[in-house]
Amino acid sequence: MTNISWKGVMPAVTTKFTQDDKLDLEMFSLNINAQLEAGVHGIILGGTLGEASTLEDEEKKVLVQHTVELVDGKVPVVMNIAEQSTRQAVKAAALAQEQGASGLMMLPPMRYKSTDHETVEYFKAVAESTSLPIMIYNNPVDYKIEVTLDMFDELLKYENIQAVKESTRDITNIIRIQNRFGNRLNILCGVDTLAMESMVMGADGWVAGLVCAFPRETVAIYELVKAGRIEEAAKIYSWFMPLLELDISPQLVQNIKLAEVATGIGTEQVRLPRLPLHGKERQRVLAIIEEGVKTRPEIPNF
């Protein structure tokens, strides 16, 4: 089994498209290189931000292989699994492993609201089928299925289930997980607007969204918190908050891609049925991004 250190800032990266709706690997590479230069600790492909539900298998393959080559062993490449059937999830895990991914992030079954027992069996089937380390994505707010501590009790019998992307929006859940499982389960915050609080409470890292446009600031917050330099981290976090709120929106992909344009490491192209923002909402989001870019803080040495 390959091991991953489930710690630090792991960007859930956007997928870049050309104007004729093909993968834009040139712009994608530019962004990944900016993430690596800023010191991120992993790259997560094919999440919600990566527009995974619109990607074809061949495109996922290209993205995984290209990213693995690009990062060249510097950080782990994690592939997200969001499938409708257990069979498809097992197949997706096998493909990700074959293509060189070093870990998996896993959502519960899509579309079908599975029971606790069904959800556990789903995760177990994938864990049994692969030697890749797995981070369970626990987001009952958006996906209506909660992975409870009792369910984790059952799942942690599998050595390769190692981390949770904690998106319950309940900070106290971090304490509960730590009290129950100690260091057995690494915790990464999955909600941009709760990231600093989560890390102060002992979360191991941050699966981040706005990092796609602002990698240096995101990594700085993590590193400063871990060094106990809370005031300095809070200063950057306060500046960041209006931008981070762009992540907790159904249009998070469009919002974050607009931010990537503003910082020169992305384009606005999204895949249908998504459309770029327009009208008043576009003006509102652009105003937040422009203000953020204009007032970018000095990053202290860490």
Automatic annotation (TrEMBL):
Q: Name one Pfam family in it.
A: DHDPS
Q: Which SMART domains match?
A: DHDPS (SM01130)
InterPro entries to which the protein is assigned, alphabetical: Aldolase_TIM (IPR013785), DapA-like (IPR002220)
Q: What's in the keyword line of the UniProt record? A: Lyase
The highest taxon in the source lineage is: Bacteria
**Family the UniProt entry places it in:** Belongs to the DapA family.
Question: What is the name listed in the Swiss-Prot or TrEMBL entry for this protein?
Answer: Dihydrodipicolinate synthase family protein
Q: Which organism is it from?
A: Flagellimonas algicola
| Lineage of source species | Bacteria, Pseudomonadati, Bacteroidota, Flavobacteriia, Flavobacteriales
